[in-house]
Amino acid sequence: MxxxxxxxxxxxxxxxxxxxxxxxxxxxxxxxxxxxxxPVTVQNMGVKTVIVQRKQLxxxxxxxxxxxxxxxxxRNISLKIGGWVEHQYVNFxxxxxxxxxxxxxxxxxxxxxxxxxxxxxLRYKNRLKxxxxxxxxxxxxxxxxxxxxxxxxxxITEGQIEALRERGTITRSMVLHAPFRGIITERxxxxxxxxxxxxxxxxxxxxxxxxxYADIYEYEAPWLRPGQEAEMTLSYQPGVTYRGKVVxxxxxxxxxxxxxxxxxxxxxxxxxxxxxxxxxxxxxRSAVAREGVAVPIQAVIRTGTHDIALIALEGGRFEPRELRxxxxxxxxxxVLEGLKEGERVVTSAQFLINSESNLQAAISKMLAPKGExxxxxxxxxxxxxxxxxxPEQPPGAKGRSRQSPPMPGMKMP
Length: 413
Hints:
The chain is α+β, with helices and mostly antiparallel strands. It has six helices and 21 strands.
C-alpha cells in the first residue's frame, strides 16, 4: 500500500500485506507513465490493438424532416379591379389546376368601360389609317395603345385582348386563369360575392418540388454544408428513397429544441407522392476532411479535460499519450495531434493499462531521490541576511545561540 516501504527480502509490510517482488530491469523505459506488462498477462487481459491509418473521413447525420410547400413556387391570385364573381370554376381547396385553367368569371363595370374605349380607339384608328395627315394617324394609334395598356395593367392576357379585337364586341365578364400548374391551398371568395382590388382570391402552390425542414443538433452543425446530398424515406413507402440537396441553413437555432434547421429540396413524383406536412426520415452525408488520421472511438479515454490513447510499443510496453481530437466521423475520431500513421493503439482493456500507468507514475514520483524532490517541489533554502553574523554555539548547547537572562520573578531550575 505504501510504495516508499521497501524491503530486501520477501515477507509482509507493517499493515500485514504480502510484499510484491520487483526485479532488476522490470521497470519500463520511456516517457513518464510507460508500463511494461508480461505477454501472458496481456493475453489474459484481452488487450486488442489496431493500427492508426490515414483515410477519407465522412459523417452521416440521421434526423427527422417535415415536408412542406415550396415557397418559391407559391402565388396569390388577386385582381387589380373590383367586381362581382359571376361564376366560379374552382370552388374547393385542394383541387389540382393546370396552367391556363379557368378559375372564375368576374363582372366589373370598369373593365366593361375599358373594353368599350379600346374598341372605339380601334375603330377610330382604322378609319384614320388612310389619312394624309401623319399627326392624326399617330394620335389614333396612341389612343389605341393607351386603352390596350390599361387592359394589360389589369392582367388581361394577350389572348383575351386578341379575342376582343377579332370579336369587335365587349363581353360582360372576364375569365381569370391559373398562372401555372399547382394545387389550390387557399380560397377566399364565393360565387356571387364582391371582391375588392387587391383582395387575395386564391393561393396556388406548385408541388412538383417540395421543401423538407430537417432539425440538426448543435454538435452536428460542423458537418452541415449547403449543397450536400440528402436521402429521404417515408414510412408509408418502405424501400423507396428520394434524393435531394441542402439549399439553405438557417442562421439561428430553435430555442425550445436547440436544433439548427436545414432546408432541403426534393423533386416530387408525377402523382405527388410527397405531400406537405408528412414526416420523413432524412440522412445527410458530409465530408469532414479530405484526408486525416483516424482513431477508433473505443481507443480514446476521455477524462473530461484530456483525451488519452495508449500506444502499444515493442517489448510489451505501453505509453499513454495525450491527443488533440477533431470531429467525430462515424465510429472514429479525427486526430489533429498526438498520433501518427502506422502507430498501434489499444482498443480493449485500456482502462486497466491506464490505471497501471497512473500507478507507476505516482510511484516514480514518490520514490524519487530526496535531492531531486527538493529541486522539483521543495522551496529553496533561505540565504542569511548580509551584515548579520550568527555566534557560534558553545559545546553542549542544544539549540540556543546565547544564554538569555532569567526573567524577574521567575526561578530557573
